[in-house]
From TrEMBL:
Organism expressing this protein natively: Cellulomonas edaphi
Family annotation (InterPro entries): RmlC-like_jellyroll (IPR014710), RmlC_Cupin_sf (IPR011051)
Protein name: Cupin domain-containing protein
Amino acid sequence: MHISVMPSYPVEHFGSDGVQMDALPPAVDGASTQVHVARVAAGGTIGRHPAVRSQAFALVNGRARVEAPDGVREIGPGALVVWSPGEEHQTWALTEVVAVIAETDGTFDLYHHPAEP
């Protein structure tokens, strides 16, 4: 077993505000993958930017609005949003938000993750 402390840093890129990221270690020996825990203050935003790789945003706690080229949606705990590489998107925290964000050079197998109606 290895127990350590996740490095934590503020995110201000893309006009982001009130965002604190806790970084999990990157995966090795496979498709490049990075996982973060995002803590976004109520009223904060992860600014508009293109997804560099396939990106999954899993909302653990709170309420948020997410935007992509096809519109803006309000989401709550348990929602999973996946953006494709190059897709412009932005997230706003309506309340304090905790989310897990995974980025990969591969793809996400969403077979067991049905889309919302």
